[in-house]
Design a protein that fits this description.
The complex is a heterotrimer of chains A (about 650), B (about 280) and C (about 270).
Chain A (H helix, E strand, L loop, with lengths): L5 E4 L3 H12 L4 E5 L15 E2 L3 H5 L4 H11 L6 H20 L14 E2 L9 E2 L5 H18 L3 E5 L1 E11 L2 E11 L5 E5 L2 E4 L20 H8 L4 E2 L4 E8 L6 E2 L3 H4 L3 E5 L16 E2 L1 H5 L9 H14 L10 E4 L5 H19 L8 E10 L2 E2 L48 E3 L17 H22 L13 H19 L12 H15 L6 H19 L12 H25 L17 H4 L1 E8 L2 E8 L31
Parallel strand pairs in A: 1-2, 1-10, 2-6, 10-19
Antiparallel strand pairs in A: 3-5, 4-5, 7-8, 8-9, 11-18, 11-20, 12-13, 12-17, 14-15, 14-16, 16-17, 20-21
Chain B lengths: L24 E8 L6 E8 L7 H10 L27 E4 L2 E4 L5 H4 L6 E5 L6 E3 L2 E2 L2 H9 L20 H11 L6 H4 L20 H11 L8 H9 L12 H5 L6 H22 L1
Parallel strand pairs in B: 1-5
Antiparallel strand pairs in B: 1-2, 3-4, 3-5, 6-7
Helix pairs in contact in B: 6-7, 6-9, 7-9
Chain C lengths: L1 H6 L1 H32 L13 H17 L2 H26 L12 H27 L18 H10 L7 H31 L6 H31 L2 H16 L3 H9 L1
Classes of the chains: A alpha+beta (about 650), B alpha+beta (about 280), C mainly alpha (about 270).
Chain lengths: ~650, ~280, ~270
C-alpha cells in the first residue's frame, strides 16, 4: 500500500499550524503556497490574539465570556459549538506560541502584557508590538522549517493551486489530491493526497483595493466552489473602520490604535478646515465615545465602520469635506506609542509622510476580511444545555469552566471538513467562527485553532477514514489526468489569446479586474440596497462576458504572471457573483451586512447560514439552520445611546 | 520598538518635496525573459496617481505594456505581496540601491516631469524573470542555523519561559526580519551562487546570523546554540564577514545586524575556546 | 589548499586576525617609533652632539637606535623569522579571503563600505610595499633602488636618504617616484592596521553594541593618527636628511665608538 500523504494548500497561519500538527502526527505533508510561506498575508495582521488570561480571569472574565462575546460580536450567525471550543483553546494556543518563542510584549515583571480590543470590556488581547501576525507566522514558519529539514514537510513554494481532484465513490465524493502549476516553469501536474487542507485565506482582491495582500484573490476557494464545494455566508465581508487610503492598496491601521487609547473624531462644524491641533476640544465630535459610552472607540468593526461611513457620507462631516475622519493618538506619550504601536505608526509615517505620534491620522474604512468561506461541518462536543442560555452577563460566573471537548469533539473526522470528504478548510477560507462580523484579534486565533485542533481530525481521517483502505497513491491515474487536461486547456486558452502590447480596455484583464473591484466596493461593502445590488448583478454579467473574450499581452511559457492574473480573475468573478447574490438574498441587516432597505435583523428568517452551491456554471443559494443551541440571540446594541447616526437609505457610495 | 523611538521632541517629519501633479515619469527596467536569456533594457512612461509607489506604476505598465518608443512588449514580471513593507517580497534594486518597491513613493523619487527611475532585479540571487528573483538560498540559510525553538510538540505543556520586557523587546526587533534579502544584496562579501551544493561554504549573510542570535537568546532556543555556532564558525560563517556594515544601513526593519554579527563573533570565540579545552 | 582551509577554517581565520596584531602590528608600532626618531630623536639628549643642530642630533639618535637593534643578532633573527612567517601567512590568506568579496562602493558609498574596500586594497599594495622595502633595504637588491646605494645599518640615515632620493646628491625624479610609493605604502599600511584592529574587535566579539564599536573606533582612529604621524615623520625626516651630512655624523659616531678624533674619523671614512 502506498504511503499516506496530506496536502496543505496555503502557508499562512492556518496552513502552517495544520502542517506542523499533521507532521507531528507522523504524516508527511506537501505544503503548497503561491509565495514563500513566510510572506503569506498573515504577516499583515497587527493588533493581537485574544485569549482569556489569568489577570482577566481574576477580574471576572472567562473563556465562556470570550465565547459569548464572539457570538454576540458575530451577530448570532456563527454555529456556536465550534466557537466555544475555540475560546476554550485560546489560552493553550497562547502558551504554545509563547513556548515557540514569540516575543510577546511583557510587563515589568516579565509576564505577557495585554491590551484592550474591540467588543470586550476586558484586556484579553496578547500582542507582539503592532506586528503580532508577523511574529506568530514567523514562529510557525520556524516550526515547519524544522519539520522540513527533517523531511516530514515538503514545501512547494511558487506553486499555484488550480483544482481539487475529486473522486466519485459509492460513499460519495472524496478528495484525493490537487492539480497545481509551478508559477516559474508553468508546469501543470497532479499531486496525490489522502486529505487536502485548504488554508488559502480571504478574497480582498475581489474588491480591488483592500487591506489584503496582492495574493488574496480568493481564487483557490472559488476553484473549490466551482468544483462542487459549498460556500457559506459569502455576503459577510468585513470592512475595517480604520485604513490608510492609498493608490495601490488601503493599508490597515490596526484596531490596537484604538485599543491603546486612540480616539476617533471629526470637527463638529461642517466645513471646519482648521488644522486638527487648532481645533479646541469642545469643537471636536468624538462620535463613537458619545454614542457608545460603554465601549467608546472600541465598538466592533462593523459598527465603527458604519458610524464613520455615516458621518462622512450622510452627515458630510468628513475631515476637509472628504471621506476621512481623524484617528487621534497625539494625547498619548510618544515613547509609549512607539513601544506599543511602533510597527503600524511607522507604516503610516512611511506612506503618508506624517508622524501619527504628533498629528492625528486620517483614516477611512476598507475591505478587510471575509467571514464567509468554504462551508465546513463539525461534531458537537459535550456541553449541551437543555435550552440555550441568555446572553452572559459580563464579569459574572460562567456556567461552565473550560475543558477540552465541550464545544467540538476532538479528533472527529468531520471537524472543519467541507461537503467533500477528505477536503478540509482552515482559517479565513472557512466560514466558521465569526458569523456576520469578526471581532478584532480573533482571526489569528481561529487560524491557529483550526490548524491545531482540526489538524487532528485530518490525521484521524487519513488513518481511520476512506484512505485507510484505499490510499490515494494506489488510485488509477485517469482521475488525475482528467483534471490536468482540464487545467492545461485553460492555460492554452490564455496563451493562444496572447499578443504583445495592451488589449483594448473591453478585453483587458487588468481593466476588467479594476472595474470588478470598483463595482464590488460600491455595491457590496458598508451599505447595501436592492436596487444597487441588482445593478451590480448586471455589471458582473457584463464583466464575465468580457472576460470570456479577454486577451493577454504575454504568451510566455515561463513565469507568465499575466496568465495567472487572468485565470484568477475568472474565479474572482464567480466569487463576486456569490457575494452579490448572498447580499441580495439576505433581506435583513446583520453584522457586516447592512441593508438600507431592510435595516433590522430578522432572526426568524435569516438566523441561518447562506449556503451557495455552484453547478453547471450557475450559483444557487439556500439558507440552512445554524447551531444556536448555547446562547439565545439578543439585540446587538453595544449600549448605543441614540440611533441618530444610523446610515439613512442613501445610495451606497464608494468606500474608498 | 522601532529605531525611530528616541526622538521625543515634538518635531514634525521633514516635508516631502512637492510632486508635480499630472507629470510623466519614466521607468527604465532591466528585463530578462528567464534564466540564460539575454538582458535588455526597456523604458516605460507612466503618469503616477497621487501617492503612487513602484508597484502601482508596474501595475499600470502591466495593463498597458508599451515602451516609450511605442514598441509593444510583455508585462514586466515582479514579485510582491503585502504592499506595506512587512512581507519582504517586492525587494528590488531601485536607482542602484536595494529596497522594497512598495514603500518607494514616486512623489519622493520622481517629483518632476520626465524624472527617471531605474528598476533592476536583485543581483545576488538568480533571476526568474525580469525583476523576480529566486531567494531559496536565503531560506536554506535559516535551516542551516536551525532558526527555531526546539519545542517538544504542540501539546499543551503550559507557558513558555518568563522573560523580561527588555529581553523581549530586543528579541522582537531581531524577530522582525522579513527575509527580504536587502542585507545580502548590499553586502560586498555575499555573492551570487546558483549551485545549492556550494551554499554551505558560501558566506551566509547577516540575516542568518541575526536569526541565530535571536534563538540563542531564547531560553529554550539556546539548547541548539552549540549546533548553530558549529555552523557559523565554519566556512561561510561569521568569520567571513568583512565588516563593511552595509547590511545595517539598508535593513528596512532597522535590525541591529552588526550587533548580531558581533554577538555571534563573541559566542563563537567562547565556543571555540571551550570546545578546545573540553574536547 | 581549499580543503585545508575548509578544515581549519576557524583557526586560520582567527590566526589571520591575530597575526595582524601580534606580531605584525606590534612590530609596526616599534618600527615606526624607531624610524620617526630621525626627527624626534633630536629632542633626546645625545652625548657628543650637545652643540649640534636639532636635525643632526636626530640623525645621530636614529643611527644609534638602528645600530643597536641590528647588533642584537640572535634576537633579531628570531624576530625576523617570526615576522616573515606571520607576514606570509597574513598576506597569502588575506589575498585568498579578499578575493571572495567584490566591492560595491559605487552603489553603497557608505564610510564603512569604503573602509572595507580600502582594507583590501591596502592589503595588496601594502604587501607589495613591504616586499620592496625589505628587498631594497635589507636584502641589498640594489637594482631596485636606481641611483641609491646599498643600505647599511652602520650608515642607516645616509643610505636610507640615498635610497629615497635616488642619489647621494639630492632628490631625483626616480627618487620622487620612490618617495611617493613610500608615502602611499606606509599610509595604507597604517590604515590597514588601525582599521584591522577595529574589525578584529568585532570579529572576536569584544565590541558588540553600536556605541562600543563607535568608541573603539575612536581609539583605533587615534592610534592610527599617531602611527600615521610617525610614519610621515619617518619618511619626511629621512627625505630631509642630506646624504653627506648624515654620513659625517655616522662616521663621527663610529670613530667616537672606536676612540678616534672626529677629524681623523672623517679622513678614515672617506677612504
Amino acid at each position: 500500500m502506498a504511503q499516506h500523504r496530506v496536502i496543505v494548500v496555503g502557508g499562512g497561519l492556518a496552513g502552517l499550524a495544520a502542517s506542523a500538527r499533521i507532521a507531528e502526527a507522523g504524516l508527511p505533508v506537501d505544503l503548497f503556497s503561491v509565495v514563500p510561506v513566510k510572506r503569506s498575508h498573515s504577516v499583515c495582521a497587527q493588533g493581537g490574539i485574544n485569549a482569556c488570561n489569568e489577570v482577566a480571569r481574576q477580574q471576572g472574565y472567562s473563556e465562556y465570556e470570550h465565547f459569548d462575546e464572539t457570538i454576540y460580536g458575530g451577530d448570532f450567525l456563527a454555529d456556536q459549538h465550534p466557537v466555544l471550543e475555540m475560546a476554550n483553546w485560546a489560552p493553550r494556543i497562547i502558551d504554545l506560541l509563547d513556548r515557540m518563542g514569540v516575543p510577546f510584549n511583557r510587563t515589568s515583571e516579565g509576564y505577557r502584557d495585554l491590551r484592550l480590543f474591540g467588543g470586550s470590556l476586558f484586556k484579553r488581547t496578547h500582542f507582539s508590538g503592532a506586528t503580532t501576525g508577523q511574529q506568530l507566522i514567523y514562529a510557525l514558519d520556524e516550526q515547519v522549517r524544522r519539520y522540513e529539514s527533517e523531511g516530514q514537510v515538503t514545501k512547494h513554494e511558487f506553486w499555484e493551486f488550480l483544482w481539487p481532484v475529486i473522486e466519485d465513490t459509492a460513499q460519495g465524493q472524496r478528495c484525493v489530491g490537487i492539480v497545481a502549476q509551478d508559477m516559474r516553469t508553468m508546469q501543470v501536474r497532479a499531486f496525490r493526497a489522502d486529505a487536502v487542507v485548504m488554508a488559502t485565506g480571504g478574497c480582498g482582491l475581489v474588491f480591488g483595493k483592500s487591506t489584503n495582500s496582492i495574493i488574496c484573490t480568493g481564487a483557490a476557494a472559488a476553484r473549490c466552489f466551482r468544483a462542487g464545494v459549498w460556500y457559506a455566508n459569502p455576503e459577510m465581508i468585513q470592512v475595517h473602520p480604520t485604513a490608510i487610503p492609498g493608490a495601490d492598496k488601503l493599508r490597515l491601521m490596526s484596531e490596537s490604535a484604538r485599543g491603546e487609547g486612540g480616539r476617533v473624531w471629526v470637527p463638529r462644524k461642517k466645513g471646519d478646515n482648521r488644522p486638527p491641533r487648532d481645533i479646541p476640544e469642545g469643537e471636536r465630535y468624538y462620535f463613537l465615545e458619545e454614542r457608545f459610552p460603554a465601549y467608546g472607540n472600541i465598538v466592533p468593526r462593523d459598527i465603527a465602520t458604519r458610524e464613520i461611513f455615516g458621518i462622512c457620507v450622510n452627515d458630510g462631516l468628513g475631515v476637509n469635506g472628504e471621506n476621512q475622519v481623524y484617528l487621534d493618538l497625539t494625547h498619548k506619550d510618544p515613547e509609549y506609542l512607539t513601544k506599543k504601536l511602533g510597527g503600524i505608526l511607522e507604516i503610516y509615517e512611511k506612506f503618508v509622510g506624517v508622524d501619527p505620534r504628533f498629528e492625528p491620522m486620517k483614516i477611512f474604512p476598507a475591505v478587510h476580511y471575509s467571514m464567509g468561506g468554504l462551508w465546513t461541518s463539525f461534531t458537537k462536543g459535550s456541553y449541551n444545555p437543555e435550552t440555550p442560555r441568555t446572553k452572559h452577563k459580563s464579569g459574572t460566573r460562567p456556567p461552565i469552566l473550560a475543558e477540552v471537548g465541550q464545544g467540538m469533539q476532538l479528533g472527529a473526522l468531520n471537524n472543519a471538513q467541507t461537503n467533500i470528504t477528505g477536503l478540509y478548510a482552515f482559517g479565513e477560507v472557512s466560514f466558521a467562527y465569526h458569523g456576520a462580523n469578526r471581532l478584532g484579534a480573533n482571526a489569528l486565533l481561529s487560524c491557529i485553532f483550526d490548524g491545531l485542533f482540526c489538524g487532528v481530525s485530518v490525521a484521524n481521517y487519513v488513518r481511520d477514514g476512506a484512505p485507510a483502505k484505499a490510499p490515494a497513491g494506489d488510485l488509477a491515474s485517469a482521475g488525475y489526468d482528467r483534471v490536468v487536461a482540464q487545467e492545461q486547456q485553460k492555460v492554452k486558452r490564455w496563451v493562444d489569446s496572447a499578443s504583445a502590447g495592451a488589449a483594448e480596455p473591453r478585453t483587458n484583464p487588468y481593466v476588467i479586474g479594476k472595474e470588478l473591484g470598483d463595482e464590488m466596493t460600491a455595491a457590496c461593502t458598508v451599505v447595501r440596497h436592492q436596487t444597487r445590488l441588482a445593478q451590480c448583478a448586471g455589471k458582473l454579467a457584463e464583466l464575465r462576458e468580457r472576460h470570456d473574450s479577454a486577451t493577454l499581452a504575454d504568451g510566455a511559457s515561463w513565469s507568465n504572471q499575466a496568465l495567472g492574473y487572468a485565470r484568477a480573475l475568472s474565479d474572482m468573478l464567480v466569487l463576486a457573483e456569490a457575494i452579490a447574490k448572498g447580499a441580495t438574498e439576505r433581506k435583513e441587516s446583520r453584522g457586516a451586512h447592512y441593508r438600507t432597505d431592510f435595516p433590522e435583523r430578522d432572526d426568524a428568517n435569516f438566523m441561518k447560514t447562506t449556503l451557495a452551491k455552484h453547478q453547471g456554471g450557475t450559483t444557487s443559494l439556500e439558507f440552512i439552520p445554524i447551531d444556536a443551541s448555547l446562547i439565545l440571540p439578543t439585540a446587538r446594541t453595544y449600549g448605543k445611546k441614540d440611533d441618530k447616526a444610523t446610515p439613512k437609505p442613501a445610495m451606497a457610495a464608494s468606500a474608498s | 520598538m522601532s529605531a525611530t523611538a528616541s526622538s521625543s521632541t515634538h518635531s514634525r517629519p521633514v516635508a516631502r518635496p512637492e510632486a508635480k501633479p499630472g507629470r510623466t515619469v519614466r521607468f527604465r527596467v532591466k528585463r530578462c525573459d528567464g534564466p540564460g536569456k539575454p538582458v535588455r533594457w526597456e523604458t516605460f512612461a507612466v503618469k503616477p496617481e497621487p501617492g503612487a509607489n513602484i508597484i502601482s506604476c508596474l501595475q499600470q505598465i502591466a495593463a498597458s505594456p508599451v515602451t516609450v518608443d511605442g514598441q509593444k512588449t510583455t508585462p514586466v514580471a515582479w514579485d510582491s505581496g503585502c504592499l506595506e513593507e512587512v512581507c519582504g517580497a517586492c525587494t528590488m534594486v531601485i536607482n542602484g540601491k536595494t529596497r522594497q518597491s512598495c514603500s518607494c513613493l514616486i512623489d519622493e523619487y520622481a517629483p518632476n516631469e520626465g524624472d527617471e527611475i531605474t528598476l533592476e532585479p536583485m543581483s545576488k540571487f538568480p533571476v526568474v524573470r525580469d525583476l523576480w528573483v529566486d531567494r531559496a538560498r536565503l531560506f536554506d540559510a535559516l535551516k542551516r542555523v536551525k532558526a527555531w525553538v526546539p519545542i517538544d510538540g504542540t501539546y499543551s505543556l503550559g507557558a513558555g519561559p518568563r522573560e523580561s520586557a527588555e529581553k523581549s523587546e530586543s528579541r522582537y526587533v531581531m524577530s522582525t526580519c522579513m527575509s527580504c534579502g536587502c542585507c545580502l544584496e548590499a553586502c560586498p562579501q555575499y555573492q551570487l551562487e546558483e549551485n545549492p551544493d556550494k551554499w554551505p561554504a558560501s558566506f551566509i549573510g547577516a540575516h542568518a546570523m541575526n536569526q541565530a542570535r535571536l534563538f540563542n537568546e531564547h531560553a529554550t532556543g539556546a539548547v541548539l546554540k552549540g549546533a548553530r555556532l558549529d555552523t557559523l564558525m565554519g566556512e561561510g560563517g561569521v568569520n567571513d564577514c568583512g565588516n563593511a556594515q552595509n547590511c545595517v544601513q539598508v535593513c528596512p526593519k532597522h535590525i541591529p545586524l552588526t550587533e548580531s554579527i558581533a554577538t555571534i563573533g563573541r559566542s563563537v570565540t567562547i565556543h571555540a575556546i571551550a570546545k578546545w579545552f573540553r574536547g | 589548499m581549499p580543503s585545508f582551509i575548509e578544515k581549519n577554517h576557524f583557526l586560520l581565520r582567527r590566526l589571520h586576525s591575530l597575526t595582524g596584531i601580534v606580531p605584525i602590528g606590534v612590530f609596526l608600532i616599534a618600527h615606526l617609533l624607531t624610524n620617526s626618531s630621525i626627527i624626534w630623536g633630536g629632542g633626546a639628549l645625545r652625548e657628543g652632539f650637545d652643540g649640534a643642530p636639532f636635525k643632526d642630533r636626530g640623525v645621530a639618535y636614529f643611527q644609534e637606535e638602528v645600530a643597536w637593534i641590528n647588533t642584537q643578532v640572535p634576537h633579531l633573527l628570531l624576530i625576523e623569522v617570526t615576522l616573515w612567517v606571520s607576514l606570509a601567512f597574513h598576506a597569502i590568506l588575506g589575498v585568498y579571503y579578499a578575493r571572495s568579496g567584490s566591492a560595491n562602493t559605487d552603489r553603497y558609498p557608505y564610510q564603512g563600505n569604503w573602509r572595507y574596500r580600502v582594507q583590501r586594497l591596502s592589503g595588496y599594495l601594502g604587501f607589495l610595499f613591504i616586499f620592496y622595502h625589505v628587498a631594497t633595504l635589507r636584502w641589498g637588491w640594489t637594482f631596485l633602488i636606481p641611483g641609491g646605494t646599498e643600505w647599511s645599518f652602520r650608515y642607516s640615515a645616509s643610505t636610507l636618504a640615498a635610497a629615497l632620493h635616488g642619489s647621494t646628491t639630492g632628490l631625483t625624479t626616480v627618487g620622487v617616484v620612490v618617495s611617493l610609493f613610500y608615502f602611499a605604502g606606509v599610509s595604507l599600511l597604517v590604515f590597514h592596521f588601525a582599521n584591522g584592529l577595529w574589525t578584529a574587535a568585532i570579529t572576536w566579539g569584544l565590541t558588540i553594541s553600536k556605541a562600543a564599536q563607535r568608541r573603539w573606533g575612536y581609539v583605533c582612529a587615534g592610534l592610527g593618527a599617531a602611527l600615521m604621524l610617525m610614519a610621515w615623520m619617518s619618511l619626511f625626516g629621512a627625505l630631509a636628511v642630506k646624504h653627506d651630512d648624515a654620513r659625517r655624523i655616522e662616521s663621527q659616531l663610529h670613530h667616537k665608538a672606536a676612540g678616534l678624533a672626529p677629524k681623523a674619523a672623517e679622513i678614515a671614512d672617506t677612504n
